[in-house]
Each structure stands twice: as C-alpha cells, then as structure tokens.
Design goal:
The chain is of the alpha+beta class. The chain contains 3 helices and 10 strands. It has 2 domains: about 50 residues; about 130 residues, no CATH class. The longest helix is centred in the first third of the chain and has 48 residues.
Length: about 200
C-alpha cells in the first residue's frame, strides 16, 4: 500500500511539473509572439518613414535683375515620392480649373499687355523627393515684370490645397503659404477639382 502511495505521489509530482512546464512554454510563446508583433509594427513604421513625402508650395519673386519675375513652385522635401491625388485652387475664394484663369484674371488689370507665363499641371502627378537634386514643379513661371508683380501682389488672394499620398497610402494636404502639411485619412476629389 505504501508503494502505491509513493507511486501516486510521484505521478502527481510529475503531473504538476508537466503542467508548470506547459504553462511556462505557453508564457514564453506568448512573449515571443508579442515581441514579434512589436518588431513587425516597428519595421512597418520604419518602412513608412523611409518613403515619407513632404510637399511644400512656395514662390520666388524678383522685381528686377536677371531673375526678374515670379515662380510658384511645388516641391517634395521628403524622402519618398508624393503621389498627388487632388488639387483645389481658388482665387478670391472662387474655385478655378486652370492656371490660365488665374493668369487671365490678373492680366485683365494690365490690359494691352501681352505677358507670357509657362504653366504646369499638378493633377495626378508624382513628385519625386528632392534629395540631392532639383525636382520642384514650376506651376507658374513668368519673367514678365508686370505679371510677376501682379502674381506676387495676389498671393494673399490665392488659395492652393494639394492632397497627396505616400506609396503606403498615408495622406496629407499641403496648403499655400503654410509650412506644415496637414495629415488626412485619404484624399477626395471634388466638383471644383483643379485640372491644370
């Protein structure tokens, strides 16, 4: 009888050890899973940061000299490409569809003048990062002094919102005359969408 009790006691002890071993293995597995999930999330964050675009809308203006004129430019100061999804341009609070409307409205004030400007589209373009190279998009460029001055003086009347995304579909809106883009969940086109 005593042998059976000893054997039962030993079996119970082995059973407890096996249970504790199983619980310990389960705990270690859960910890390894948590560490793996954290590392995966960290790698995803690093991957997103490695292609983070940073679009700014700026201008250059000179009223004399060899660089005379006005240039409204869009550039990507980030490290990854910026995919432009939508653009909204307004002059005096009214949406415009083309740069020609902006230039035309400002040229009306200088009747008789045949000022010329080169214009570039923004809708649907991909702006590469400007790392070690000049990749800005000159949306409006003129060397005409009168038109350049009119564009410069109209900068407060102008509103430009460019919604762009990274290749991971993280999105922002760059605003005219503001330094920091605004993060948004996604870009949506509107009826007032700027075409060119």
């Amino acid at each position: 009888m005593e042998g059976q009790a000893t054997e039962a006691s030993a079996a119970a002890g082995r059973s407890r050890i096996a249970q504790w071993s199983a619980l310990t293995a389960l705990g270690i597995s859960a910890l390894a899973l948590a560490v793996g999930a954290y590392q995966t999330r960290l790698m995803q964050t690093q991957a997103r940061a490695s292609v983070w675009p940073y679009v700014v809308i700026g201008f250059n203006y000179a009223d004399s000299g060899e660089r005379q004129g006005f240039e409204l430019h869009v550039e990507n100061n980030g490290v990854g490409p910026a995919v432009v999804q939508s653009t909204l341009v307004k002059l005096d609070g009214k949406p415009v569809k083309h740069w020609e409307e902006v230039v035309g409205a400002l040229k009306e004030r200088h009747e008789g003048e045949s000022a010329q400007a080169s214009l570039a589209g923004l809708h649907g373009i991909v702006i590469p990062p400007s790392t070690n190279r000049d990749t800005d998009v000159p949306a409006i460029h003129t060397t005409d002094a009168a038109l350049g001055k009119a564009l410069y003086e109209a900068r407060e009347r102008l509103s430009i919102d460019i919604c762009y995304c990274s290749i991971y579909d993280d999105c922002w809106i760059a605003h005219w005359l503001q330094r920091k883009p605004e993060p948004v969940s996604s870009c949506h086109e509107t009826a007032d969408e700027f075409d060119y």
